[in-house]
Structure formats: structure tokens, C-alpha cells
Amino acid sequence: MTNAQSLERYERYLTEVKKASNNTLSSYLRDVRQLGEYLVANTEVALDTATEDDLAEYIEALRAKGKSVSTVSRAIASLKNFYQFLLEEHVVDALPTGKLVPDKATQKLPQILSSQEVDLLLEQPQCVDMKGYRDKAMLELLYATGIRVSELISLNITDVDLGSAVIHCKKKDKVRAIPLYPKAVMALSEYIEFIRPQMIATPDEQSLFVNISGERMSRQGFWKIIKHYQQKAGIEKTITPHTLRHSFAAHLLENGADLHSIQEMLGHADISSTQVYSQLVKKQLKDVYSKAHPRA
Fold first, then answer.
1. Is residue 108 assigned to a domain?
2. Residue 137 sits in the same domain as residue 193
3. Are 91 and 1 in contact (CB under 8 A)?
4. Same domain membership, residue 160 and residue 67
């Protein structure tokens, strides 16, 4: 079987059987495609005839190029998944991934903003035009709820219940209700009542947040918005679309919220994903102690 045929079958499996997300699909296929390109350039074997040694040499080549631990670990996970598929399809007789062991690395803690930095960022959108009102509502909502950016831009107007001060965030077949603080309710109310009707391209548009063309906001569009306000606020920390989500969780934990409540609001399936914020808060306390204690 050619490499192209192997990739085609694998893509069909990920799409039709595993129902993989676009990001997962792209990541897995890219990692396997890069292995195929390496094999073509350096060996005489194909993806379905590669040996343990071939794969081990490829991973070592990635390390030699200075690829990060996370990149190498992701590549190993992708290749293991691919060859498990080939085994189940009886394309290979045995798994050639036995020598692939990811590097051990300490978990990198997410960077968060301080409460003062969050306040500074949220103060940047000026409610003097439609864009300002919309951006204010988006940033307030993101910090109020801790939802993912993909969830933010997927929200529909019907997902907002201002009377109860909650939003309903849908992910696959699950819906979670997340409360809103008063300033977020006010920002959303002003945007929904006065601004959104002027921005939407058609009266039947369902998207909560729209771009200047009146259509659903894209992830790339929001990325540009948050980078703009970071620069305007003069915040030197690197802010990604996930930074307000991480800050939301850490600040709740600092102020006494329990992990299970935070887990539910974040939509984490496993509590271990939420426990990283405990480590983050503990690290911050240690840093404060080291700087402030006279004998530290």
C-alpha cells in the first residue's frame, strides 16, 4: 500500500468512525504525513512496512532538530494511534511502535493574569462605537465564564439568559449553565439590545457575536481583537485566547471555590485537568513567600 493510500484510509477512519474534531484530524494526519516524508527521503520503506528501528530513528531525528518535548510526545502519540489503526485493519501484523517512549517533562503551568491585569484588559474596549460594545461584551463574558474561545464564538443568541444571569454552553450532547457577574450581564445587555441588531447581516442570524460583515466571529478574528487590547493595555505577558480561561479558574480557586465546581464550569471531563490550577496557586504562594519573607 502506498503512503497516500494509507493516509487516505486513516483519514476516513478518523472522520467517519472516530468522529475526530478538525484540530485532532489535522494534527494526526500532519504527524503521520511527516513520518512518511522522512521515510521516503531516508529509507526504502513505506508507512506500512516501517520497523521499530525506522520509527525510533525518526523520533531521534526530531529530537536532533531541537523539537520540543511536547512536539515529540505528540508525534509519538499520533504514530501509536496510526499503527494501532493499521493493526486493527490487518495492514500490519505487529505494532512497530514499541521503542517509542515520550520524554518525561514537568507539566508546564499555564500563565495567568493578575486581577489587576484582568481589570486593565477589560477596561480597554471603549463603548463609543459598535465594535467597542461588542468587544467589551466578549471579554467580560470570557472572563465571567471561563469558556473556551471555540465555545465563545459558537454561542447563539438563544444561549444567553440575561434574566437568570447565565449562559448555556453546549459541547456535543452536553449543556452546562454558567453564571454571569453583574458587569458581564450589563455589557451583554447593551450589546444584545442596542448593538447586535445593527451588526447582523440578516434578521435570522443566530450567532451571538458577529464580525464587521455581520457573520459569526471566527477564532482568528477574536485572536486579533485580544492581541490588540493587550498591546493597548501595555501588558507584557503573552496573552492567548486561553489566558482569560486560565485566569478565571485560578482566581476562583484563590478566592475559595472548590475544584469540582470549577471543573463543572470549565467543562473538564476529568478532575485532573482542573487540578493544574491548584499547582499554579501553590506556586504563586511560594513565589510570594520567597519574595516577601525576610528570611527566605
1. no
2. yes
3. yes
4. no
- Over residues 257-282, the pLDDT tens digits come to 999 999 999 988 778 778 878 877 77
pLDDT tens digits, 24-72: 899 999 999 999 999 998 888 999 999 998 999 899 888 878 788 888 8
Give me the active site residues, please: 148, 172, 242, 245, 268, 277
Q: Which amino acid is at 272?
A: S
Task: Judge if 59 and 179 occupy the same domain.
Answer: no
Give the residue numbers spanning the domain of 174: 115-291
Residues 81 and 168 in one domain: no
CATH number at residue 48: 1.10.150
